[in-house]
Amino acid sequence: MSGFTEKQLREADLRVRAMAAPPERLRAALQQAEGYRNFLTTLTGLLTVVFVLKGQENLSKMTTGPRWWVIGLLAGAFLLLLAASWMLVSAVHERPGHKVITDAKVLLTYEKKRAASVVRTTGWARWMGLVGVLAISVASLITWIYPGPS
Predict the structure, then answer these.
(1) Which candidate, 85, 66, 80, 81, places its Cα nearest to that of 140?
(2) Region class of 3: left (phi > 0), else alpha (psi between -120 and 50), else beta
């Protein structure tokens, strides 16, 4: 027993046939392209936030300890935000050229696993994004609290 009803298997078989049709393949490719475009837009926005909210124009005026904390926080935040953005793109879009599943049971199993994977990845990316934004905020506060000699 596969755990799927005959109706589910028939519907999955119809979806497989629709997914394998050239127009559907084109639509999927266009959606992936749009997703990558959105990723690049997001990345640009993240870079803007890092440079606008960093606080001082010149960190070399700060004392050594706070300066290195700010640099570390900004670098860590950038990496976290970049990784979170990439994880979300990966959660939504698979690698180009992904093989089309042509078996109804395999398709239904895949859909279940893929949904769980997307939920898990999105959860991790949300927390990484939150920690990244908090790190940028803390770095900005440090530049305001310890601005260095006047």
Answers:
(1) 66
(2) left
- Given a cut of 90, whether residue 117 has pLDDT beyond it is no
What is the band of 72 on the pLDDT scale with cuts at 50, 70, 90?
Answer: very high
21: left (phi over 0), alpha (psi -120 to 50) or beta: beta
Structural contact between residues 108 and 10, judged by C-beta atoms closer than 8 angstroms: no
pTM of the predicted model, to two decimals?
0.66
Q: Which three-class secondary structure state does DSSP give residue 50? A: helix
- Amino acid identity of residue 72, one-letter, is G
| Res. 17 pLDDT band, cuts 50 70 90 | confident
Per DSSP, the three-state class of 144 is helix
Decide: 74 and 139 in contact? Cβ < 8 Å: yes
* Helix 6-20 / helix 22-52 crossing angle, nearest 10 deg: 80
Mean pLDDT of 69-81: 87
Q: Which residues 6+ apart lie within 8 Å of 55 measured at CB?
A: 70, 139, 140, 142, 143, 144
Asked if residue 74 lies in contact with residue 50, where contact means CB atoms within 8 angstroms, the answer is yes
Both tokens of 104, joined, read 């109804």
